[in-house]
Amino acid sequence: MFVGAGRYIRDLSIKWSAKRRPKGKAIVLDQRSIFIFPTLAGWMYLLSCIVLFLVATNYQNNLIHAVAFLLIALGIITIHFTFLNLSGVKIAALKGHNTFVGDMAEFSLLIESSSQRGYDNIQLGWTGGIKQSIYIDSDEKKQIGLYAVAQTRGRFYPGILKLETHYPLGLLRAWSWVELDITSIVYPKPIKGRHPDQSIEIGDSELGRDSGGDDFIGLEAYQPGASIRHIAWKPYAQGRGLFVKKFGGQSSRQLWLDWQDWPELASEGRLSVMCYWAQRFEHNNIEYGLNLPTLKIPPNSGPEHLERVLIALALFQGE
Amino acid sequence: MSTFQLSRVAILWQLLCVISVLVPHLAHLPLWVPVLVISTVFWRYMAYTGRWSFPNRTTKLVLIVAAGISVLLSYKSGGGISSTVALLVVGFGLKVLEVYKRRDALVIIYVAYLVIATAFLFNQTALMALYVLFSIAVITTSLRTVYTVRPIRFLEPFKQTWIILVPSLLLMSVLFIGIPRVGPLWEVGIDRSSAKTGLSDSMSPGDISKLTRSAEIAFRVSFNGDRPPPQAALYWRAMVMNDFDGRRWQNDHYPEPHGVLNEPDILERKWEYQIIIEPTQQKYIPALEHLISQPQGLILNRDRTLSSKTPLIQRQQFNLASSLGVQLDKGANLFDLERHLLLPNGNQKARALAHTWWRESVDQEAYIQKILNLYNREFTYSLTPPLLGDEVIDQFLFETKTGFCGHFSSTTAFMLRAVGIPARVVTGYQGGEWNPYENYLLVRQYDAHAWIEAWLDGKGWVRLDPTAWVAPERVEKPADQLFSGQEGFLKDSPVKAWGIKGGRWLAIARQRIEAFNYGWNRWVLNYHLEQVNLLRNLLGKYTSVRLALFLLIPFIVVIFITLLPAFRKAKQKKLNLFDREMTRLSEGLSKLGLSRAKGETVNEYCLRLGDFNPHLLDDLLMLSSEYEKARYADLQSIDQQIFVDKVTLCLKQLSR
Prior knowledge:
Helix content of chain A: 25-40%
Radius of gyration of chain A: 30 Å
Oligomer: heterodimer
Shape of chain B: elongated
Shape of chain A: elongated
Strand content of chain B: 5-15%
């Protein structure tokens, strides 16, 4: 019964704090969203004050009384300074960077002071994630990247952001939970699998050599930015200078990443393999299209195309 | 968090904090303790600069064991609080050598707070209080640097510390004034090794003159109504000597059998006063004659003097009341007459003279007058009288004829007892120096005096001061003016005596300083004695509700003032109009399951709505682009009215 009551109270408090938790793209922390409680060090400090008070009482020493009172007053004033070190912090969601399952997803946040004060030693982190300590000057906008492990494919919400501070004396901990309106997209984990064109059983090394289209057209003078894999090393070794191999027919080769190509794999496996090949084809300048049961993207190449394909894979909901 | 490393500034402040805490304890710690602590601080500093490495485990262990044994050896007799302080100081001196993590730093800082407070067990001057305040600022700074990540210059955190410390000081004064003090909760060991000072409980003729060498403060008195009684009435009775062994008068500490004071017959002017007595390691409490109040906790003796139950080891304060100008015991019976007549054998010449004069006198007054005349005619008052042999009275009366108050009172009491008049010697203080700045009377050891009391028919005990017969100015002028020409005066205290023998300006400066010290003693060091009265005056009535309000209101005011900077920019930006409109759109469509998903950008949302109703796609795309311009490019030019109308339109169309 007590357990039940305890759980009831806990649920209530969770509900209560969830209700108070500010939500949105940009949040300014204020007294409604800031909690404050002594730290372990704070309790030890209080214990020291009590010891001093007992010494003062027993020796009837008014000056030691004064020291004890001063330390108690210092603790009380610190409550407010700790609170002030969180109140008025403005935190805004900038961008969630897309990533693959198993990697760390970066979320860019903008932090600034909405009061005219500076802030020192605020720790930020997603609940359960790594914390990062920052300080903000009164007129400064600070962009920080917070990381969270991307565990599942799809739209990734990093969770509740916790801001915490012990400043200035470490006696109290002020904290705030914030539901920032920020997500990133997590692509499937790329897993190497069978080539979609069933006629070609192609190995990694072969693919490297065979990159680009089929037909070698000729050499062309190197220009900065050209892919290093296309450099013709032979003429370079002969001292003739840097040349790039030019391949023809790159557009002539079109591949489809088709949902039906991997009947032996479960759907997640198919997505992973498709993800792998999409990256490979992009890497090798091969145009590729995506054919999912719900969505069809015509063949193309380029970073935007890749991102489109990857997002489609990430958000694929099944047949 | 446990791997947190301290910044360099933080380490420097830690070392400073250790040094600053050590300084006030230098006077009572054995020399090796400061040497050890300074070496560890130096070692830590060299490690900080990278020139030396940290001590290894073995070195540290050896240091800890050696220091522990040394403390035990230094205080094998059990030095009480001093050894505890030594142990704390040594402990945190060694802790300095540990590699710094946050937790190590906190241990040092918290112990430093305790150690600096114990400095007040050894020294309670105002200067020490200032130093301790400075030191607390240093300790707090070093605590602050532990929690700072912003790169800072060395002195910056010290300045910022005062921002917290100043409002704390205000709150501290409120707590100091308002929080009720309770008595000691258990017995604590206090150093009892100090020597007794002041009067002793016996008197031989030369004793009092030793005290005139000392300018030590005996006690301070403030009178209700501010003005003191006239100088000649300031007889501070401390002890009464009833027994004479031929040389030495002895006090018997015999308590009043009924334990209560009789009301005096005639109440003349009543004087109420507070007396603050310096520690004497003795029990006597000086009071003006004639005492009419008996404070709680003090013993009333049969001879109408007061004594404390335990020796005065600390400065103490008592509220007393006396009524000047009445006889001590009018009408009361002298129940042990014989005792006050008792004289040992010897001093035959003096005895013979007494009998001769007694026969020639008509009454007791006439007899006393004869003694007075003798002194007046032939005797001199001196701080450095010649030494006397075995027959003290005879030698003084017939040979040396030079003496101090002890000689005159002792001899007079002898002469009275010799003819059957009960007499006793009283020691105490006479006069005092009035401090006009703080309105109190300062009585020093050199104001010590001895006189006699005689039991006269129909009058009871009457004070007689034979010294005044020889040197009336002793009673009329303060002692410093009277004695300043004499060579024995203040012989033992050349430093304390500055300004006493010196010129007028020095004297004023000295009085100012003493006035300050008096206020310090009364309002700070002995505040617990003043607290109830002060609070009663401040609050009108001393009730717990009023006390709580008295504590609460200043708290709220101080906290409000410290919070002011936070309210300075309390006006928060309202939710942007464009955000508000998007929310309106999303909420309006929630019935259709078309509300904006968490994390969905406005652009994505508008596209999704466009899929739902392709006719609206253009409008929606315009909404999205206007929104983005407004929110992220911060363009003020966007027409808000058009935006609002568009949202309304979309909402209508989609909901249909």
